[in-house]
Amino acid sequence: MEYDPIKRRLGNVFNRTPFLRKLFYSLLDLLLLRAWHVNKELKSLKRSVSSRNIRILDAGSGFGQYSYRLSRIFSDSHIKGVDVKDEQIDDCNSFFTTIGLHEKVVFEYGDLTTFNEPYNYDLILSVDVMEHIEEDELVFSNFYKSLRNNGMLLISTPSDQGGSDTDQHDHGSVNGFIEEHVRDGYGIRDITEKLQRAGFSEIEARYTYGTFGSFSWKLSMKYPILLLGISKVFFILLPFYYLITFPFCAIFNSIDVHSRHKSGTGLLVKAYKK
User: Fold this and answer.
1) Which domains does the chain have, with CATH numbers?
2) What confidence score (pLDDT) does residue 48 get?
3) Which residues pair with residue 125 across a beta bridge?
4) pTM (2 decimals)?
């Protein structure tokens, strides 16, 4: 299934007013398990470092959800979002200007395989991006060069335990729930070794999306997206669907975030530049 067309449809619905856009961000934070994990790590980082004048790169900023969250957690930060899709860059710049955050949050077109701003960032965030990029080691090297000393890279990505929900291959491409993925996912050893080759010396990687988290993802994301792909009529039914399923998803997400997993369909990785 192609995920991007459905994301564009949702974006068109929630882009009509700034209130709806903020509501969209809040709904994503509530529903997406990866957002629960990422926000927990960001809040932990906030407690351990001074946030004054911290420079942050949102690498693969998409709708701008995480740039918005970063601006709220790190109130004195300067944030740049980069993405390869011009329409999303223009859309995010317009929205953040409308809500008065354009002086601290800016968006620019950027290809992560060529993006390099040496010693410019204290934190680089990459959420559900690396599974879309073939030349991942080149990107990791660019991230390392762009970080300041003692800077941190935070990555959320599918694991090779079924994170792309892939069931078959065709001529080397990944064919699963999300066709835009170029790989099934990462193993902990695989991504650790690639980050080490890029220059990172201290790396922490752990599984997310354990049994409860994977089930929550199916309820909150997979099944609704499959139905939206079948018919636009489901847009009308979507609020009622979530009224029923969200309490269960919230419980499952909370269990996943507060558990350690021997395996899981997601990975959360922290890598430091010393």
Assistant:
1) 4-272 (3.40.50.150)
2) 78
3) 58, 154
4) 0.90
Give one word for 186, left, alpha or beta, with left for phi > 0 and alpha for psi -120 to 50: beta
Confirm if 61 and 107 have CB atoms less than 8 A apart: yes
Q: Give 167's contacts (C-beta < 8 A, 6+ positions apart).
A: 175, 176
- The three-class DSSP label of residue 195 is helix
H-type alpha helices, 74-124 = 86-98
Task: Say if CB 241 and CB 224 are below 8 A apart.
Answer: yes
| CB atoms near residue 269 (< 10 Å) | 21
Angstrom distance (rounded) from CA 137 to CA 169? 22
What is the reported pLDDT for 6?
Answer: 60
Strand partners, 147: 121
Give the pLDDT of residue 170: 44
According to DSSP, the residues that pair with 230 across neighbouring strands are none
Half-sphere exposure of 61 (CA within 13 A, CB side): 31
Give the whole-angstrom CA distance, residue 148 versus residue 154. 14
